[in-house]
Design brief:
The structure is a single chain. The chain is mainly alpha-helical. The chain has 3 domains: 18-40 and 73-358, no CATH class; 361-472, no CATH class; 475-565, 3-Layer(aba) Sandwich (D-Maltodextrin-Binding Protein, domain 2). 58% of the residues lie in helices and 6% in strands. The chain is built from 22 helices and 5 strands. Strand 1 (491-495), helix 22 and strand 2 (512-515) form a beta-alpha-beta unit. Helix 3 crosses helix 4 (95-123) and helix 16 runs parallel beside helix 19 (447-460). The protein is globular.
């Protein structure tokens, strides 16, 4: 006998994850990566550079520039948020830390929107578990909360979310507004005003964050899901059409807004028909969305009779699938594949959550053992490298660090050490809790993946943060250049520098940079490239004299030259 739904869940399995524990866990995931570190290359510091230009009034708010260059991502809102934060922050707050504050809130909002979006999808009639003959099945609200807890943990467990969600870039604003749109479309059948307003914020915010095509595709796709969903009665049918019309109207508004602000730019870059490129995309999908993608596939298999059966377009399946398919299509057809795939993670995590009511105990045990071995091994490696840098034993890890980051000097910091030690002890307790108690909790199979991801990220952002800052920051290169320049160099001309390098010299070196073709004649010049003499319009010695060459300690191929203008 075929069940109307594959979810067979008792009331005992939908116990709530304690809210305080969940909030503390999210804080332990969100704050590391925003606190304590310097700007990283390349997108992170580039975005900060555009924000600083706007905050100083050196660029047009409607057309941000950095060193005369427009941003690679045609976004406005991310730069506005950072610039406003810089202007409002007190003088004792550094510019890069002030700019991160709005992005901390954006990540928190993305997590909240994913939880609530999954919650409302789980409330839909076709997502409910099978009713038992003598009662005892999970209640709708408790079931939805448990599935939403699982969806949030599955999102945090995704490996691809970790770095990009902690960078001050347009990718995070796009993620936040995509998650808000996901929540809005999931909650529209239950509420009108708040989800409707959120849908406007999500679509318009996504448009102003440099993804107008994604906004249009998601708006049209979600409208189609509502139109195709099988109505339960005549009144429900009229409501579906009203929701679809509303989404299409907001989408049309985004089209007009994008055209008015000239945000439409053709960036389609189809992959070449060679095995290497497709293999690279396959690896990206494999690790970036792990462990959500195997659970999402299991969901589609277990709930397949609701996908293409007589109840076509079941909302709790087709809405997240729509978001995931649009993000996957953008991943394959755009140059920034990882940042496009990032936008599909909230919906993919929601799909993964609906696999939890259908997992057999043996599958859950396999997930737990794999997670335990993988993340415990990663944590052990991080600790061994840190101990080697501190004590010199074992010698090999410290030697590898010295080879990859020459010039790096490690020091002991008590507070990061205590935080890392506490996180490791909590991980050990979590493993003990998972194998010892609460085996019936619906979200139990994603606790260890989420906890392991958060643990390794926290260890990297405490024990290895000085090393990462040295290797991933332009500060060491800027400090070398400062030794060749006088204390007050005045304006400095630039030739061939990338956007991230321009931002680094302005933020770290407090230099006033001017393009080499500017009317202003500066006494110093910083040029990029192995051989800047081949650059059109530049001839060393006429009147420039080479004062030194600088390369990044961790990236020897990244080199700049410092020249001084000689008297004619």
């Amino acid at each position: 006998m075929n069940q109307p739904t594959p979810a067979i869940v008792a009331q005992d399995a939908v116990r709530r994850l304690p809210r305080l524990v969940l909030w503390l866990f999210c804080a332990a995931y969100v704050l590391p990566g925003f606190l304590g570190r310097g700007p990283w290359k390349r997108e992170d510091i580039t975005t900060l550079g555009y924000m600083a230009e706007l905050a100083r009034g050196s660029a047009d708010w409607w057309h941000p520039t950095l060193g005369g260059l427009a941003p690679e991502v045609d976004a406005l809102l991310p730069y506005w948020l950072g610039a406003w934060a810089m202007q409002l922050a007190p003088s004792w707050v550094s510019a890069d830390w002030a700019a991160r504050l709005p992005f901390v809130l954006l990540l928190i909002i993305a997590l909240l929107a994913t939880w609530y979006g999954t919650y409302y999808l789980a409330r839909s009639p076709l997502a409910q578990p099978v009713p038992f003959a003598f009662g005892g099945e999970a209640g709708p609200t408790d079931y939805a909360r448990a599935v939403a807890d699982g969806g949030l943990l599955a999102l945090i467990a995704c490996l691809g979310l970790v770095q990009l969600a902690h960078e001050t870039t347009p990718a995070l604003t796009q993620l936040c507004f995509t998650a808000l749109l996901f929540y809005a479309t999931a909650a529209l059948p239950y509420r009108a005003f708040t989800p409707g307003l959120t849908a406007v914020v999500g679509l318009v915010g996504l448009t102003l964050s440099g993804a107008p095509s994604m906004a249009v595709a998601l708006g049209v796709g979600c409208s189609a899901v509502y139109l195709l969903e099988s109505p339960h009665n005549t009144n429900e049918s009229s409501h579906r059409k009203a929701r679809a019309a509303g989404l299409l109207g907001i989408t049309l508004l985004c089209v007009v807004l994008s055209s008015w602000l000239n945000l439409w730019h053709w960036r389609i870059n189809l992959p070449h028909a060679n095995w290497r490129e497709w293999q690279s995309l396959g690896r990206l999908f494999l690790w970036f969305t792990w462990p959500a993608w195997p659970l999402a596939l299991w969901t589609l298999w277990c709930w397949r009779h609701l996908l293409l059966g007589e109840r076509f377009a079941s909302r709790h399946l087709w809405l997240p699938l729509c978001f995931a398919l649009v993000a996957s299509a953008a991943t394959v057809t755009t140059p920034s594949a990882d940042r496009s795939l990032l936008l599909g993670l909230p919906a993919l995590a929601a799909l993964a959550a609906f696999a939890l009511p259908t997992l057999e105990r043996s599958v859950g045990a396999l997930i737990d053992w794999f997670t335990l071995i993988f993340f415990s091994g990663c944590a052990l490696i991080i600790w061994v490298v840190w101990i080697s840098m501190q004590t010199g034993f074992p010698a090999r890890p410290a030697m590898n660090v010295a080879k990859l980051a020459p010039g790096f000097v490690h020091s002991f910091s008590e507070i990061p050490f205590l935080i890392a030690l506490g996180a490791s002890l909590i991980w050990a307790w979590l493993v003990f809790w998972r194998v010892g108690r609460n085996r019936s909790a619906l979200w139990k199979s994603v606790v260890l993946p989420a906890g392991g991801t958060a643990l390794c990220w926290l260890l990297l952002m405490t024990l290895c943060l000085p090393l990462l800052d040295f290797a991933r920051s332009y500060l060491p290169m800027v400090q070398q250049a400062a030794k060749l320049l006088p204390e007050q160099p005045g304006c400095v001309s630039t030739l061939g520098l990338s956007r991230s390098q321009i931002a680094a010299f302005q933020l770290h070196g407090q230099l006033k940079l001017m393009p080499a073709n500017s009317v202003t004649k500066c006494a110093w010049l910083i040029a990029n490239g192995e051989n800047p003499s081949v650059t059109a319009g530049f001839v060393p010695g006429k009147p420039w004299l080479l004062r030194g060459s600088i390369h990044h300690p961790a990236t020897p191929d990244e080199k700049v030259y410092v020249y001084e203008r000689q008297a004619q």
